[in-house]
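So, can you check this record?

>
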Amino acid sequence: MTDDMLLRLAYGANILILLPVVTALLWSGTAAVFGPGVAESAGLRLLVAALWGAILLCSVIGLAWPRPMMGILLLQILYKTGWLLTFVLPAIRASEPVPWGPTLVFIPIILLWPLILIRVWL
C-alpha cells in the first residue's frame, strides 16, 4: 500500500467517524456523543462540533491532497492524547464517569495515526 493510500485511509476513517458524530452533536446535543454524564452545554456542543467539523472538512480535502493535509492527523494525535491523559485517565482513577464513546474511538487513532505519519515521513 502506498503512503498516499495510507493517508487517504486515515482521512476516510475520520470522515466515517466524524460525519455522524458532528451531526449528532448539532441535532441531538452533547449526551448523544459523550453520554449522559456530560451536562448539555450549547458552548461545549458548538465548540466541539466546530473542531470536529473542521477536522472533517480537512479530511475531505485530504482525500484529494493527502500530503499537504497531514498536519490534521498530527493535530488529532496531540489533542486526543492530551484529553485522554488529562481528563479520561484521572476520571478512571477517581472512579468517575468516563465518556466511553469518544475514548474508545480516540485510542486507536492515537496508536495508528503516528505509525502512518512515521511511515510517510521516513
Observations:
- The mean pLDDT is 95.
- The two ends are 15 Å apart (CA to CA).
